[in-house]
Amino acid sequence: MTGLLERPETTPPPSTGAAPRSTAWLWVLPPLLLVLLVVLYPLVRVFMESSVDGSWGAVLGSEMFRDALWRTVAIAATSTLGCLILGTFLAIVLAFVPFPGSAVVGRLIDTVLALPSFLITLAFTFLYGSAGAVNAAISAITGSSSPMLDFLYTPAGVITAEITFFTPFVVRPLLAAFSLIPAAQLNVAASLGASPWRVLRTVIMPEAWPALAAGGSLVLLLTLNEFGIVLFTGAKGVITLPVLIYTRGIVTFDLPGAAVIATVQVLLSLALYGLYRVVFARLTTRRGVGDAAVEPPK
């Protein structure tokens, strides 16, 4: 009776049709088309415009282009160095030297990230310009009719404004990196008799090198392509590559020349980004090897 009630095992018939093809790749098309339209198409048009006969030789051979290239790199490098020094100092103070109002200072630094760059230039004009508040106060004290501070309309003024605006881009990654350092690690180093400077040099900064490299590289790319601060400062003789592109393309309507300078700007930015990726990869690899070397056996 049990044998009669048991249902014989049957195997499903072999599938004769092909497996349904996945259509997930179709979701890639909209963002890919958007990137091609918004990013690659303008770059291709700029490169094609720069291919007019004689444009490259005329632009690269001009003294104005060489001066603008050198001035752009010099201002960007100096501003980046200043941001690294000031940003590292501010991040260390905010993270490890608590003081009343430190949270307010941190919020103010975050606020600068949301502001357009030309507002910093306008603020500097109201403060340090020829008719600014600082010069007015100095004139009221000394009785001098000529402004005592006259650096705003020079490369030093541009560098100062860029350091003021771009320093938070270094502070924020460093604060995030410092927050990941275990407090016990700092306490052990201090209990072993290490001075604060040695703790900073041997414990804190090795953990912050990747964040410092990331922030510094971002600031270098941003200052290299900065246009608003240089334009609104109105510094005479401070012609950078973005300003030269604006002058060639908008003022003199030399579109092929502007396209050549823009192509050089793009290639320079891509080269710096590639260098950043190489340096960042080496720093993270070295850090991973060091962590593996000190990891205790299980």
Automatic annotation (TrEMBL):
- Residues that span the membrane, as ranges: 24-47, 68-97, 117-138, 212-235, 255-276
**Membrane topology label:** Multi-pass membrane protein
Gene Ontology annotations for the cellular component aspect, listed alphabetically: plasma membrane
InterPro entries, from UniProt? MetI-like, MetI-like_sf
Subcellular localization(s) per the UniProt record: Cell membrane
Keywords assigned by UniProt, alphabetized: Cell membrane, Membrane, Transmembrane, Transmembrane helix, Transport
Residue ranges occupied by any ABC transmembrane type-1 domain in the UniProt entry: 69-276
SUPFAM superfamilies associated with the record: MetI-like
Classify the source by domain of life: Bacteria
Q: Where mainly located?
A: membrane
Q: Which GO terms describe its biological process?
A: transmembrane transport
Which family does the record claim for this protein?
Belongs to the binding-protein-dependent transport system permease family.
Which protein is depicted?
Answer: 2-aminoethylphosphonate ABC transporter permease
Identify the species of origin. Mycolicibacterium iranicum
